[in-house]
């Protein structure tokens, strides 16, 4: 399944090469990002948008088993009296579909070093969602979303904490649900793209190193808090660190193969 290509979400520059519209690619980038950036306009007469870093997940409360290749909503976690929460609530009061928002995420996978400054780049994965945000008012859906967001930090973390949240925590936390209207992703995963004039210049090729530097995100050894009384790091934390680090390395090695093959 793919998001429909419209003026808003169509990738223009090198869109045929790098633009992606399938749900799985778009959703997986949002899901993997530690932080998403949410843009909205808080005041009708203010020309400047606000951009907030938030924790976000893709999911479907109505169909919890839905995969990333199926329609899902984006859930955002925040403080109940923050500006975005108040503005979102007001749009609902005004009878609108919700607050128009843009949710963006990106991952840098490597440094692309070319012969000329203009051809330098990154290998990356990026995604943008466009949709309407509404407050989650159903307690069951709110608890479900809070659990999913907690488990995005570390899988199985929710069940290994003091749960359920108490009344004060529930009242101070607001979850927004973004109903996605359309979206797209852009992915670069190749070698440097130098101009033919430079590739034919033996002098330039003989003195300028060109290539690719892989980049991975790695989790280091856990550090206990000053009040921690648990002797060992829990298995679910250690296992996640190992799995997450290996997945990063596996993807980096796969990308190195893509770059090498494209170069050859």
TrEMBL record:
InterPro entries: Pyridox_Oxase-rel (IPR024747), Split_barrel_FMN-bd (IPR012349). SUPFAM superfamilies: FMN-binding split barrel (SSF50475). It comes from the Eukaryota. It holds the Pfam family Pyridox_ox_2. This is Flavin-nucleotide-binding protein. It comes from Oidiodendron maius (strain Zn).
